[in-house]
Amino acid sequence: MIRAGATVGFVGLGRMGTPMATRLAGAGYRVQGYDVSEQAVRSWAERAEGACQAASLDAAASGAAAVILMLPGSAVVRSVLAGLVLAPGTAVVDMSSSEPLVTRELATEIGRGGATLVDAPVSGGVAGAVSGTLTIMAGGAPADIDHVRPLLDVLGARVVHCGEVGAGHAVKALNNLLSATHLLATSEAMAAAAGFGLDVPTVLAAINTSSGRSGSTETKWPNFIVPRTFDSGFSLRLMVKDMRIALGLAEAAGTPAALSAAATSLWAEAAQALPADADHTEIARWLED
Ligand code: NAD
Predict the structure, then answer these.
(1) Active site residue ranges
(2) What structural domains does the chain harbor?
(3) 194 C-alpha to center of ligand 1: Å?
(4) Which of 29, 101, 120, 193 has its CA 20 to 30 A from that of 156?
(5) How many CA atoms within 13 Å lie on the side-chain side of 281?
(6) pLDDT confidence band for 135 (50 / 70 / 90)
(7) How many whole angstroms separate alpha carbon 138 and alpha carbon 46?
(8) To test ligand 1's pocket by mutation, which of 10, 20, 53, 70 has the most ligand atoms within 8 angstroms of CB?
(9) What's CA 95's distance to the chain center, in Å?
(10) Nearest Cα to 267, choosing from 168, 195, 182, 207?
(11) Residue 24: pLDDT above 90?
(12) Which residues sit with their C-beta closer than 6 Å to ligand 1?
């Protein structure tokens, strides 16, 4: 098991990676943080006590018992792993929301050199990353997950072992397909409510103790859409990436996906129309327009 005091490489110091790497440093790990953006590394190091800024990928992985990845998706994960020489026994933990089949391929590739890969994507957003209350959906051999478990326990309140490697990434994509479909449906319902002359917070209050409630009615609408801040910290483009991964799973399995396809197509249309850095809660404003 990789316990406090061990050296950990952390690659990807963005909205999620910054608070996660900060928690690990706070828990007593020697965290070597790296990001392709030097500014991201500097601003993380300013926040995190005991942070070790890594000037390169190799410096991040040097002497590390584990290398944690919190990157946009599989394409970047693949290129980062291709650029790393991993010592035998190194545990790679891909906490990004990646593509399950690519994750399986990468696990086999790095396994040839004696390293292991666990997929451990998360739900709970930036607030969950800051407070260490993320839900972690883990995929991999039980022994490999046990090995990195102390790290996961610093980052999340709940670790669910979903199955073999890639299973965590599959569950995460399916979770986000549901979450995005709920948010789109909620946004349509709230537009109809407002059009009918109803007070949206009152409508949400009624629904939140009724059968139509969801994370969208309980959290996203009240916290980011009603106050018009649209600042949840999760980008709309990353949501569309996750929906496409989930839709691909349904297509590969040959299971019905008409609603999923329609929702993904609407989200993709919004991604085309909105700026690249638009927050995913902007879907509600896009619908209104
Ligand atoms: P982000 O865009 O804020 O951060 C990604 C970071 O990766 C950036 O700092 C970027 O510079 C860095 N990066 C890109 N290419 C790199 C490379 N080749 N080498 C090193 N660093 C590189 O994204 P985020 O919101 O932190 O999301 C990260 C992952 O977590 C994504 O897969 C996302 O889908 C997932 N996720 C995000 C949230 C959220 O609320 N933001 C919640 C759950 C899961």
Answers:
(1) 172
(2) 7-163 (3.40.50.720), 170-288 (1.10.1040.10)
(3) 35
(4) 101
(5) 20
(6) very high
(7) 30
(8) 70
(9) 7
(10) 182
(11) yes
(12) 11-17, 35-37, 40, 70-73, 76, 79-80, 96-97, 122-123, 125-126, 233-234, 238
